[in-house]
Amino acid sequence: MSSDTDLKRGKLKKKFVTGPPPIDPQKCYVNPNEEEQMEIQGFIVSKIQTGIIYFLCLITLGLLRLVFHWMPHWYLWATHRKSGLAEATSVLLKDQYKQWFVAVVQTITKDGTRVSVIKPSASFSLSSKTKRQRGHLFLNTGQKDENLIRYFIVKRVKYIWNPDEDRYQKLHGLEKDGTCSYFYNADGLNFEHQRKRRVLYGTNSISVHVTPILSLLFKEGLSPFYVFQVFSVSVWFSDEYYYYAACIVLISMISLTTTIYQTRQMQRALRNTIQASTVVSVCRGGDVYEEIHSDDLVPGDIIEIPSYGCTMHCDAVLISGNCIVNESMLTGESVPVTKTPVTECNTKFNIKEHAKNTLFCGTHVIQTRYYGNKKVKAVVLRTGFLTSKGELVRAILYPKPVDFKFNRDTYFFVGVLAFIAGIGLVYTVILKVQRGDEVGEIIKRSLDLITIAVPPALPAALTVGIVFAQSRMKRQAIYCISPRSINICGSINAVCFDKTGTLTEDGLNMQGVISAENGVFSDEITNMIVLRKGLVMDAMATCHSLTLIDGRLSGDPLDLIMFDSIEWVLEESGEDNSKFDMLVPTIVYPKSSKEHTMTAEQLEHIDSPGSELGIVRQFPFSSSLQRMSVIVRRIGGTYFELFCKGSPEMITSLCTPETVPDNFAEVLRSYTQHGYRVIALAWKQLSNKYNYVKVQRVARDKVETELNFLGLLVMENKLKPETTPVIEQLQEADIRTIMITGDNMLTALSVAHDCMMVESTDKIVLVEANMSNKDSTQPCIRFNFEESIKETSKDEVFGKDVTIQMLDDKSKIKFAMTGKTWDIVRRYFPDELQKILVRGVVFARMSPEQKAQLIEALQEIGYYVAMCGDGANDCGALKMAHTGISLSEAEASVASPFTSKHPNVECVPTVIREGRAALVTSFGIFKYMACYSLTQFVSVLILYHVDSNLTDFEFLYIDLALLTTLSVTYGRTEAHPKIAKEPPQLSLTSLAPILSLVLQMAIQIASQVFCFLNVQQQPWFEAHVSEEEYDFMSYENTAVFSVSVYQYIALAIAFSKGSPYRRHMFTNYLFLLNIVLCFGMSFWLTLFPTPFLEEYFELQPPPVVAYRFVFFGVAIFNCLLSIVMETFLLDHAHMREKFRQFKERCFPTFKFEYKIIEDEILSTPGWPPVGNEVIVAEETDDLISMDIYATETDLMLEDADVNNSCNSLFGSSSQSIPHKSGAYIPDVEVARQQEVGNHGDGIDVAREAQITMATDA
């Protein structure tokens, strides 16, 4: 349907993709098709180029070296030449955000000895002296040696050279390409194996370096801002402009000290939060255990988890015993999670799918569950920065760069100011040469002009609004760790919300139980006291992950509510386990149970199984499987039973059809469409072939089949009281609101209706995609109205024929889709995806990865996106969004720029309001600073014409008393209490701000030129004659100074915007007081100066007092004209709309992508095709997956005794084609490699090398 609109945008349609950019076959990559995909180039040193660069650095007095300090990749290009990766000594990498990284290639032996690479030579030899001085190895590229490892480190990750594929690959732990059974075959590493593996993996620590003060001082002091400050101050001191130069030095030192202090404070805080170590017990083979420091752990070690708990210092997979873990550091939820041993099978291990079997670094093991004297053991998977905690810290240390148009435009305008300064410099040089001035004087005057045209204080001034906004948010319990993100908040036009815990309350209320017997639903039971004993009650009593911690029942809130409602008792392993003839970690029974008071002998004589249940095994809840289950045995029972609970859709798919009521879909919808959370229950009796040992080893997919449907649990999830007003406030401001949740679609839609995210007049269209249907084997997509789905019966959900319905008002269409549909549409329907993104309002059953993908996709079509979540499963989306707002104080929220101490969504409009206020403040201050510098620039150029200039104290008064104070107090104006519909201006290069600057400068120049020329026409005027070097006292100087001082005040008032983004200027009392003081002082100084002031400022006021009021009148007229033009002409709502229409008419390509897509939706007849029309994906080359699959690799260790301990040393790879540089690139059309096999540790690490010991024989 969309093919006829593909070319409407006036350009060739490009494939809509998210994630890393497509691979270029002509380039080499590391981490291909992953989020950390980077281009890589190899370089070797060129002695000739290096010598030339050193000479140029010398003759430029180090200026060129300073530029290379700012741009290290330029230095690499200048001093090295390109080479193949195989022989490169340095590598240059570029990530998807266009950031450059330079890394030096290191070469070591497997014993950890460093080697140096030298070129082969027939006469190669080392003197005895050299051999004695150098104690490491020399590598002469000429022969192979499999004992060497070449690597480099970038972003705290090590990349190893793989000679078999001629490319660098990311070093992995044991989480790649291994099977679950491997961990049970592991017998621990001996000391020698561990030492060699530590050479490869390094120390198991997530070290956050606290930079020494001296290093920070040089690093900050050599930044472009401070370098220009040093240049400016040097010019001023040479020009004897001591006062202001001293003030700038003082301000810069305070700023530099504050920056260093804050940086070290943040580094210390991060180090103290992240860095930790302890002593762990490690298996050395058999039952031999040794206590070592946690920093010495390596992948493959088997560690014992102590019974009293611990904090994990590595990622490890559990192989025996259970652990109760607090994962709040990762998920934001302090709810204890039960970790169970991984199943011993040949299934490929996947750390995401086996998360319930994995203990993650940084999480806290509260206590362990074990049987008898067996140890709770785990195999180390990953260490250091490879761990989950390490990934989080790396995300903090190397965040996604903030690419904001306002920031880019400021650099452009600084360049424009520098260009204007260049023109003024040429004018000054020509003028001074014609006058015959000395060379030193010409240089000083010319350089002084540059410091005037490009204000050194500009970067500091631009942070004023941000600092005040951050302070105001802190008072409202909103904390920001990335102040640069505040301006971006002002551009937000779409906000995504998590549902549970964000829009709705964390807790649930038990609404009722609907039992099902013989395929028929019973009436709903809302009072659990009247719920009769049976399988439904048994399921509610056992199918959970609750545990006792310090005598208190803890676990998932849903499980707690379910268990508490039936008033049963839970006990954990104790002396009474003998009742079950086995070791049972958890026992549940009714409070009225008689069996619980019986002895083991009495229980042998009961006729039938009792009500007391022992939970023998637990299969934890998995978001991908959407269910959890437990295996139980009744007291006195002879068989095991399985209880399962999860999403209704998943549970019914596992049940036998005859046990599912015919009206299942209708009953389910009746609750979900009203916002209730519905959980399905199922049961199965296991066959007698299962004994205790088999139950402990059986895979869950073997027993979670052919279940009997038991019924539904209904729970109420209430909206937070703040939710609806916030959603309405955002929608009134034309800010899109989107729900992203892992919950059921109909529940999410109900919440969206209740909170007014979906209005009563909106038409919800559900998007459903499948990989095939009855008419086609290709992926297909169909659209149905929300009402048509509600009216569909169980048997018709996927088969009912619905006639195509034409829509009268397309502006009311909103889309909703699930995570399953998202994956298919994202891959096969890029054009439909863009339209769905523009109108999508509810995205249900979304995984954490899909949430981040959605955020990125919205950004791709031009939205500035905010994400608000409670930290649970939202970390990826929070980091991906332009503005991430976490409602959780967990360590995972550190990656989010904003954290609210109040766990509700009221913080969202606050952040947007403060962001808009900060952005408008920065916008105004930038224009003010630009006009200030150009106004002063014009004043100096005019006075240069008569061989005069502003005096030191005139400069000081303008720069310090006027500019500095007005800039600081200007930013104190608070944010407007209401969010306006029209977003603030984002671009400095658009017509309105450029016209504002041009017209304002025209007014300032006209006023100064008028006063300069008019004073020369007066009968008492005397032309300026310079009698000494710094004699600037003249009528021309006084005329220009007298009008310009008012211009700086007028510009501050004109650019001080109020409504609709900030409160009115009159609410900023400090700014008003500052204006009054500046105006009063200027009035006194220009009209009635005392002799002291005349001498101090070197003024020569007109002898006729009445004439001084001419300057004052011109200044007042200038002020009024500037303010009126800015407020009532350029910044008027009508004029802003005219500017917008003019831009869209003259520059249609500048229109946001999402607006173009919106126009396409409105102009495309018959779209979306609501009904039974199916859109089928076309078979194109675009759809070929470019995923790189893992091939089999072995360890880079010599010994083969430790089988398969690290067969995923390298990252994923594919069959490859040779690259001209000697590296290999992926062939995207090659199929998946063969299954993983078992190999030893002795990989052939090819090296064309010859080792010569550099020590005496």
Name some characteristics of this structure.
1257 residues, alpha+beta, 39 helices, 46 strands
Can you tell me about this structure?
This protein has 39 helices and 46 strands. The protein is of the alpha+beta class and 1257 residues long. A hairpin with a 4-residue loop joins strand 30 and strand 31. The longest helix has 38 residues.
- Helical percentage: 25-40%
The radius of gyration over CA amounts to 36 Å
Shape: globular
Strand percentage lies at 15-25%
Biggest sheet, strands in spatial order? Answer: 22-42-41-40-23-35-39-38-36-37-43
Number of strands: 46
In short:
This protein has 1257 residues and is an alpha+beta fold.
Task: Itemize the secondary structure elements and their pairings.
Blueprint: E1 28-30, E2 38-45, H1 47-59, H2 63-70, H3 72-79, E3 80-83, E4 90-95, E5 100-104, E6 106-109, E7 114-118, H4 128-133, E8 137-140, E9 148-154, E10 157-162, E11 167-170, H5 180-185, H6 191-201, H7 213-221, H8 224-238, H9 242-274, E12 279-283, E13 289-293, E14 302-304, E15 310-311, E16 315-320, E17 322-326, H10 328-331, E18 336-339, E19 358-359, E20 364-369, E21 377-382, H11 388-397, H12 405-435, H13 439-453, H14 458-462, H15 464-475, E22 478-480, H16 485-489, E23 494-497, E24 509-517, E25 520-521, H17 535-542, E26 547-549, E27 552-554, H18 557-566, E28 568-572, E29 586-590, H19 600-603, E30 613-622, E31 627-634, E32 640-646, H20 648-654, H21 664-672, E33 676-685, H22 692-697, H23 700-703, E34 708-716, H24 723-732, E35 736-740, H25 745-754, E36 763-770, E37 780-785, H26 786-790, E38 813-818, H27 819-828, H28 830-839, E39 840-844, H29 848-860, E40 865-869, H30 875-880, E41 883-886, E42 898-900, H31 907-944, H32 952-970, H33 991-1015, H34 1035-1054, H35 1069-1087, H36 1091-1097, H37 1105-1130, H38 1133-1146, ...
Parallel strand pairs: 7-8, 23-35, 23-40, 35-39, 36-38, 38-39, 40-41, 41-42
Antiparallel strand pairs: 1-2, 2-3, 2-4, 4-5, 6-7, 6-9, 8-46, 9-10, 10-11, 12-13, 12-14, 14-21, 15-20, 16-19, 16-21, 17-18, 17-20, 22-42, 24-25, 24-34, 26-27, 28-29, 29-30, 30-31, 31-32, 32-33, 33-34, 36-37, 37-43, 44-45
Helix pairs in contact: 2-3, 7-9, 8-9, 8-13, 9-32, 12-13, 12-31, 15-31, 17-18, 28-39, 31-33, 31-34, 32-34, 32-35, 33-34, 33-37, 34-35, 34-37
